[in-house]
Amino acid sequence: MQEVIRLLKEKNLYISTMESCTGGGVVNALTNVEGASEVLKYSAVTYSNEFKIKMGVSEDIINKYSVYSIETAKEMAKSIVNFTNSDLGVGITGKLNRVDNNNLVGDNNRVFISIYDKNNDNYYNKEVVVDKNTRSENKLLIIDIIKDMLLEILSR
After folding, report:
1. What's the CATH number where 46 sits?
2. 53: which of 4, 67, 70, 72 lies 20 to 30 Å off by Cα?
């Protein structure tokens, strides 16, 4: 994430995250880099639907598409940008190696990632099927994918 932080600083951009299944792993990776506080505005870990909605995700979107959908990830990314007035917002939702008794709809081991670029009003989306044996390995895989997505966006 060092290169991500460097590019954010160079471009004078701010980032925020709303994470679910990664449990704060993305913001942890960002804040492991010295100087991250200069570009990171805020991060929310919203495991429950209730707090996704409180942070601005449309309940109608969750009800229509399920909490495990690209539509919800997009809402998470844009909501965190709106909440923090950041330039980039990262939204992540999905299931990692478990059944969610509160949200039975959606495939296990499928993760939805959306990065919203406010300045260009554009979403960068990815759907990933995770295949590692443990939650922590799957989290690391998702964090690495997000790092690569951010690098691609910031290198434009």
Report:
1. 3.90.950.20
2. 4
